[in-house]
Structure prediction request, 173 residues.
Amino acid sequence: MQPSAMKLVFLSSLQVLFSLSCFSEVVSAAPSRGFGDNISWRTLDDGKKEAEASGLPMMVIVHKTWCGACKALKPKFSESKEISELAHNFVMVNLEDEEEPKDQSFSPDGGYIPRILFLDPSGMVHPEITNKNGNPSYKYFYSNADHVSAGMKEAQEKLTGDAYRKSHVGDEL
Ligand SMILES: *[C@@H]1O[C@H](CO)[C@@H](O)[C@H](O)[C@H]1NC(C)=O
Prediction:
């Protein structure tokens, strides 16, 4: 091979490697903010794309840096093995401060924090998935890990791939 051809082959394989590594960096870019480093966090935009492509439901935590209840939830959440295992079956998103979506569907019964919402793979919020063990006036407020995993299990049953598609077959016909 000519040296210039060698160089070309080398450069194009570098380019492939580079674009692969860029891709994985882009999809794993979101920080944990104290909610657990064992979980793969996504930004809301990347998360929506991934949920749509994978058929996985999305879990979205809305929180603020200055909020005491958020600070209290973080260690309970991040130390829970059950949550980190269940998280494999979700696209996980945490939204801090100004990242809170303006869309009203993300605050079904008020703008308190932290709030946890579950979305189907198409990105629609499902307000029927609430904290059944919590305060009925603040249905999306969670203060302990067991309540979070109970919500995740309910969401997993109702919103994951097949279950979700079956209940929506009617919509598509
Ligand atoms: C996180 O991963 C580490 C290393 O695999 C493990 O020791 C730890 O128990 C995990 N934590 C949780 C909450 O799953």
